Amino acid sequence: MTAGASQMRDVAADFPILTREINGKSLVYLDSAATSQTPQVVVDALVRYYTETRASVHRGVYPLIEEATELFEGARERIAGWLGSTVEETIFTSNATAAINLVSHSWARTNLNPGDTVLVTEMEHHSDLVPWQLVCLERGATLEYIPVLDDWQLDLDAYDRLLERKPKLVGIAHISNVLGTINPVAEMTRRAHDAGAVVVIDGTQAVPQIQVDLREIDADFYAWTGHKVYGPTGIGVLHGRRELLEEMPPFISGGHMIRQVFEATSTWTELPGKFEAGTSQIAEAIGLGAAVDYVNELGIDAIRAHELALTAELLERFAEFPGLKIHGPADAADRGALVSFEIEGAHPHDIGEILGRDNVCVRTGHHCAQTLMRRLGIGSSARASFAVHNTSADIDRLMDGLENVRRVMAL
Ligand SMILES: Cc1ncc(COP(=O)(O)O)c(C=O)c1O
Fold first, then answer.
1. Among protein residues, the one whose CA lies closest to atom 14 of ligand 1
2. Residue of 32, 175, 288, 361 with fewest CB within 10 Å of its CB?
3. Number of domains in the chain
C-alpha cells in the first residue's frame, strides 16, 4: 500500500524531519507510539507565539496578553470540542503521567480508605499503574488486576467478578502501548459505574489513532498526552467530570489557581484554573491546538484507515518472517497502529541497534509495562508503530532491516 492507496493525501512534506538523513539513509520513523513527529504547522504555531504574541496569559489587560490568552483559551476550546468535552472539564497538565497523578493525588487520596480496592488492567503503562500503587499503599487500599486473556483481550468475566468487590476506582488503558489491544472502554465504564466505581481511562495511545468520543465513553477521567498526537512535548490533558473536579482538592497549589488568599487559608478559582497552578504551558497548548487542527484537517477516520491498512500489511509481512513472534491480537482491526515483536535468537536491543544503522527507528525495551512483560514471559521487545506519514515503503525498509538483523546475528 502506498500513501496514495489510502484515502489520505501524501503528508510526508508536512514533516520537515523526514528529509533528515543519517549514515546516508533517509529516515524511517516507526516510533510514533513513543513520540510522534511534528508537522510544520505546529512548529509555525509555536514560532508565531514566540515571535509575535509571547506574553503570559490571564495576568493583565494589555493587547498582547489578551491575544496570548485568546490563543491559549482558543486552543483549549478546540481541544475540548474535538473529543466531546467542555473547557471547564479540560485541564492542561505537563503530560499524561501528570494528568493521572492529578487524579491519584487529588481524588484518590481523598476518597480511598483502608480496605478499599482499586482495579487496573494487566496491560497498563507504568503511568497508569505506579500512581495507584503509591496511593493504595498510603491509604491501605488493595490494588487488583483485570487479567489479559490468551487472545490479548481483557477477561471481562474476571472483570465482572472483580467488580463484585465494589472497587472505588478502575484504571484502564484505551489502547495498550505494547499489545495494541483496543479495550472496550465504554462498556467497561458502564459496568464500573453500575458497581459504583470511578473510572480513569489512559487514552494516551488512543487519541492519536482512533476516534474518541468522551460523551460516549462517559468515564470520570480521561488522560492523554500532546507529544504523541503531533503536538509539542510538555503538555498533557486531563478531562474530568465537572462534579468530581469541583469536589476535589487542588493538587499543585500556588499562583493562578486561587480566588482569595488570606493569612491562613485560601479559596480556589473556578475550573479548570483550580488545577492549573503557576504559569501555564502556553506555547505548548497553542501548539497542541494546531496539532488537533492538523488531525482534524486529515480526519481521524482517514488516519485510522491509513494506519489500519499499514498495520494489516505489517502483520502479513511479519507472519512470513522466520522466527518472528508478534505480541497482541492477530487481527489488525483489534489493534491500534503498533506491533510489538521479537525474533528468536536476537535480543530486542540488537534488533533496534541494527535497524538504527539503516536509520529505521523502532522502540525497544520494556515499554514502561513491566507487569505486562512478565505476563508475556519476556523482559523486553521491539515495537514498530505508525503515524500519518508512514507508507508501505517504510515497511519495506523495516523488513530489509530485519533481514539484515538475521544476517548480522547469523540466524
Ligand atoms: C499507554 C500510555 N500511557 C501513558 C504514557 C505516558 O505518557 P507521558 O510520558 O507523555 O506522560 C504512555 C507513553 O508512552 C503510554 O503509551
1. 34
2. 361
3. 2
